[in-house]
């Protein structure tokens, strides 16, 4: 170790003093220790002091205003937004498909759509009828109370239909069609039938009024499905059309005599689609449709008011003069009403057309009021609900193991969809005015009760899907089913058909085969 360099001499310092020399030697030893490269103690102390210094700096300048990364998010490109949106859509679609695959999904959809359409119908009838009702009766709630009462009775009919066994429906179907035809004949008898609005279509039974043309729709569905359910697919035409078609022709003819051509057309469509679902060939089905259309055109020109509507409708498409103050008055006002509504509508209750500009605004033309008050959005939602109901109904029919319920569900769905298409079609000007009501939305007594009864039958068919039966047998019923104490559906058992033996007579085979039904007619056990 070398001695430190002696500094320049200063006053009062004795460099030869032993004490001074010892102190200088100690300072040199300390410098050698600090400068030693193998020392780790200094490195640790240095790192600790540097860390403390940085920590003090971070604490002092850690506010957001001094931080470069405060509130900063990296800019996302358009591709990332597209990928995130597509992923969200895929997730939503997957969840929706999983929900639709649940055993009771069809049942819940039918019940939910029925509830929404019924409540919407009551509200829209109140809005559309309040002005004319107040003018005629001094109160704005007369027709609303009537509609609410019929809707309550319809809910009862809906619940009754849910509790009915399929075997009971098949047993009473023949009696139902006989009674319906009898009512159609009675309504034409003077003194029994009541004429309203130029048509003799109602029968008064005490405090209630019955419209046989609405009752016969339900009877034809139940009886026609009962007849066709036992026919094999591809059966001869004679087995399919007899005796259903002659009875349907009789029913349509009696309804046309009221006169009520629009309902007669609905009957023809109902029976034709039922035959198609039962296995009628497409060629014969198309021939029947063409024959029905020809008959409808001929009947349309037999009455002055019907021919005027048809000519006005054709004139609108050909560009000829239209009678906007006569036969074309209602369609013109309906289109004005839809145009006034715009995209979002004028608001519930704000319609101008209901102030005596649009006749039957609460009934045949309720869809125009929906479009005016709720806009194109409300009209699109209404169309969407009927489209969803059609899809659900056909899915219920496709999933049925029982051919009877398959025909009932498919025919009910076709009937509701057809009436909705025709009503909305003539409101927007795509079809001539026929007077067919919009199911559950138009004002009506018999109509809303019987439509809700049909919806109850459709919901009951949904509970008879094989997956639903399996789920309900394990006690997995919905809360609605438990509240209503709905009976558990029974699985469908195909009727036993013995293989014919040509060596044995039919009577002997029936007598000796204990599994053979007592009658030749097939039966269904549910």
From TrEMBL:
Its EC number is 2.4.99.28. The chain crosses the membrane at residues 107-128, 140-162, 174-195, 284-302, 365-392, 404-428, 440-459. It catalyses: [GlcNAc-(1->4)-Mur2Ac(oyl-L-Ala-gamma-D-Glu-L-Lys-D-Ala-D-Ala)](n)-di-trans,octa-cis-undecaprenyl diphosphate + beta-D-GlcNAc-(1->4)-Mur2Ac(oyl-L-Ala-gamma-D-Glu-L-Lys-D-Ala-D-Ala)-di-trans,octa-cis-undecaprenyl diphosphate = [GlcNAc-(1->4)-Mur2Ac(oyl-L-Ala-gamma-D-Glu-L-Lys-D-Ala-D-Ala)](n+1)-di-trans,octa-cis-undecaprenyl diphosphate + di-trans,octa-cis-undecaprenyl diphosphate + H(+). Peptidoglycan polymerase that is essential for cell division. This is Probable peptidoglycan glycosyltransferase FtsW. PANTHER family: CELL CYCLE PROTEIN, PEPTIDOGLYCAN GLYCOSYLTRANSFERASE FTSW-RELATED. It is found in: Cell membrane. It is a multi-pass membrane protein. Residues 500-526 have a biased composition (Basic and acidic residues). The keyword tRNA-binding does not apply. Residues 22-78, 490-526 are annotated as: Disordered. Residues 38-50, 57-71 have a biased composition (Acidic residues). The lineage of its organism: Bacteria, Bacillati, Actinomycetota, Actinomycetes, Mycobacteriales.
